[in-house]
Amino acid sequence: MDSGSFYITLGRQLRARRRAKHMTLNELAEKLNKSTATVSKYEKGEIFISVDTLVDICRILNVDISSLLPDTCMKEDPNDVTRYQKYFSERLYLYWFNGEKNKLQKAVLVNQKMSFKTTMYYDVADISNYYEANYVYEGRVFYTDSCMDFILSCTEPPFDTLTLRLSSLNRHSSYKVGLLSTISYFYQNIAMKVIVSDAPLPEDEELISSLRLTADDLKNIKRTNFFYAQ
User: Fold this and answer.
1) Domains of the chain by range and CATH?
2) What percent of the chain has pLDDT over 90?
3) Are 182 and 156 in contact (CB under 8 A)?
4) pLDDT score recorded for residue 71
């Protein structure tokens, strides 16, 4: 990664964390004792951020600085990294259908492959501009030969924990169906059928149709009394 693209990505990540805290650019600039124009340039990647300033921003935004930096070392068991690296994806794109709002909703998972850390940009309007997410979750992914489990916590209130389970992605399928569980805005436990892909999918009626629960889905849920995805 060249320094230019690194600082552009870093700036976008910082902007996402600031927005998740509902903090304005002016408020962050005041806390840093810097001009609003300077902080804006940090977020746009137009000027480099010193280590001292980055530490200050992370302290103010309550962000683990390591979550903003690319993998530089292998923190997991090297045998696990070797065993599961065929399942690694730098980004995963999530889609689910919100029946209450009657709309397609989306999220993007950005994975640090060597450390098994992951960040979810949740509820995004534009999948190609996922840093403008309404919520940011931090966590990690657990790999097995049969499935991947993501466990993440929201970085801001309501501080809920979100879990995602899906079969291990492989190059023989374009997407997988998984189960996403969290709490609603009204603190109700919910579980959602999601489609997960390592590339953006067309946001068309075919996708929406595949996300709706079918009569067979409901029949099996009633029969087993389990939420499940296949």
Assistant:
1) 3-68 (1.10.260.40), 78-224 (2.40.160)
2) 53
3) no
4) 63
